[in-house]
Inverse folding.
């Protein structure tokens, strides 16, 4: 029995050692794992493995979701109070994102514009937030202008997200041909589920049923290879798609 226990401890240490190598941890973890098979494995589990695991990420998401459900306005209140107490550029940016997440798109767009008039004038993250907020409140020309600024400044900055946002903004502006070309370009460049799904949603909105059906068939073929975790990751998108 003691021999079996010792073998189990070594096996667990070996499994964590493989994880350490694959995730490029410091090599001293290998020494700890094999010098102290039981204690070292316990320390590695709590210090390295658990924070990096799906369980930990899932727990964090669940806690964050529960907090938003119980007190959905907390972050907005705290961001507003922080900005009023200390009106720094950082607190103003935090307030803008809180307004956007709370669904106050017009206020968020105005706050983002104020951020851009100060030290964050060339900050691409702020431009991205301004584009999202502008699109959400129907200021499509402003959204397109912000996204074009990002493309000129750094074509690789959040390339897929900004490409899709730009296609959506063009569609919302009534520029159907430009939107279709932008969605097709995003799909060709990234070939992702998100790009194809957003293209499908837009195709439905303009009544292009043939294109929508073709895109849906491609999505369904992709989803045949999904596991439960992948489906959960895309739950919000699948709800929008009605799939």
């Amino acid at each position: 029995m003691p021999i079996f226990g010792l073998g189990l401890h070594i096996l667990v240490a070996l499994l964590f050692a493989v994880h350490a190598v694959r995730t490029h941890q410091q090599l001293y973890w290998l020494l700890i794992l094999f010098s102290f098979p039981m204690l070292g494995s316990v320390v590695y589990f709590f210090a390295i493995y658990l924070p990096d695991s799906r369980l930990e990420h899932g727990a964090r998401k669940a806690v964050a979701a529960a907090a938003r459900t119980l007190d959905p306005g907390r972050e907005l209140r705290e961001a507003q109070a922080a900005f009023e107490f200390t009106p720094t550029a950082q607190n103003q940016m935090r307030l803008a994102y809180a307004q956007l997440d709370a669904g106050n798109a017009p206020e968020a767009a105005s706050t983002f514009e104020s951020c851009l008039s100060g030290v964050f004038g060339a900050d691409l993250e702020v431009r991205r937030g301004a584009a999202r907020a502008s699109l959400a409140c129907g200021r499509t020309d402003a959204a397109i202008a912000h996204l074009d600024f990002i493309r000129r400044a750094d074509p690789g900055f959040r390339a897929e997200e900004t490409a899709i946002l730009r296609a959506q903004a063009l569609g919302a502006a009534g520029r159907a041909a430009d939107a279709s070309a932008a969605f097709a370009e995003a799909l060709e460049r990234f070939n992702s589920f998100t790009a194809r799904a957003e293209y499908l949603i837009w195709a439905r909105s303009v009544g292009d049923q043939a294109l929508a059906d073709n895109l849906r068939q491609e999505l369904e073929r992709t989803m045949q290879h999904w596991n439960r975790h992948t489906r959960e990751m895309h739950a919000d998108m699948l709800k929008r798609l009605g799939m």
